[in-house]
Design brief:
With 227 residues, the protein is an alpha/beta fold. It has a single domain, classed as Rossmann fold. Helices cover 33% and strands 29% of the residues. The strands form two sheets. The chain has a six-stranded mixed sheet with strand order 6-7-8-3-9-10, with helices on both faces. A four-stranded antiparallel sheet has the order 2-1-4-5, covered by helices on one side. Helix 3 runs parallel beside helix 5. It is globular, with a radius of gyration of 17 Å. It starts with a strand and ends with a strand. It binds adenosine-5'-triphosphate and magnesium ion. The site of adenosine-5'-triphosphate has 12 residues, from strand 1, strand 2 and helix 1.
Length: 227
């Protein structure tokens, strides 16, 4: 099976002023279709940087990133952006929903930006699975944190990305909402076959994954299979 993501000797060096920070130092990893992977490690070890480079939000300094067989490190910024739009869904700690639009609008706008137009079947499948079918006419301010994050997840996967990249999606949520969001991610993985990479500080959250990658100082130190 061809991996969705493969990195080879991946380096990312941030140059800020006179100081270089090597955030990634030769990361090797592979993510297969249908996998649910958690990434853990201390603050500053490079987790977000890895997600940004894999997802085409940031350019690698050295090495290769293959995303669904396409080498992101040999592409123009414009080509990388196009590929990201078609292949990657992102979710962050902050929900980043548009405050003036209701939940339906926030999700539907992603389908319009994508260029394929509104797909009612996909919309129903995703919103039902995420348990937000009866919240679609509420604006973000009228939704709980957990509901807002579920809307953000719906927006991220509405266009059937090859991979969903989630950077501490439960970081702003209480225990109960966190659990519901994690259960939803697992459901998306199990029912729709959605490939997921989840960054988390919470071992409980990582237990939802098939595999945990542990990072330290810009490297993956091991990948321990769960159960
Ligand atoms: N835009 C940037 N410019 C310069 N240095 C950066 C930049 N972004 C991240 N870094 C540095 O790169 C290293 C890795 O940062 P990164 O955000 O990937 O860590 P992280 O594992 O996601 O941490 P956290 O758990 O706190 O979110 C850190 O030393 C950080 O200070
Ligand atoms: Mg981070």
């Amino acid at each position: 099976m061809e991996p969705i993501v493969k990195t080879e000797d991946l380096w990312k060096i941030y140059r800020s002023g006179k100081v270089d920070v090597a955030a990634l130092r030769g990361v090797q990893c592979e993510v297969l279709p249908g996998e649910f992977i958690a990434v853990m490690g201390p603050s500053g070890c490079g987790k977000s940087t890895l997600l940004h480079v894999i997802g085409g939000l940031a350019q690698a300094t050295r090495g290769r990133v293959l995303l669904d067989g396409n080498d992101l490190t040999r592409m123009s910024d414009a080509a990388r952006t196009m590929l990201r739009r078609h292949k990657v869904g992102f979710v962050f700690q902050r929900f980043n929903l548009l405050p003036a639009l209701d939940a339906r609008g926030n999700i539907a706008i992603a389908q319009h930006i994508h260029g394929d137009g509104f797909d009612p079947h996909r919309f129903d499948t995703v919103t039902r699975l995420l348990g937000i079918s009866d919240r679609l006419h509420h604006r973000p301010a009228e939704l709980s944190g957990g509901e807002q994050q579920r809307v953000a997840i719906a927006r991220a996967i509405i266009n059937e990305p090859k991979i969903l990249l989630a950077d501490e999606p439960t970081g702003n949520l209480d225990t109960k909402s966190s659990e519901s969001v994690l259960r939803m991610l697992r459901k998306l993985n199990q029912d729709l076959g959605q490939t997921v990479i989840l960054i988390t500080h919470n071992p409980e959250a990582a237990s939802y994954a098939h595999r945990v990658l542990h990072m330290r100082d810009g490297q993956i130190v091991d990948g321990i299979p769960v159960d």
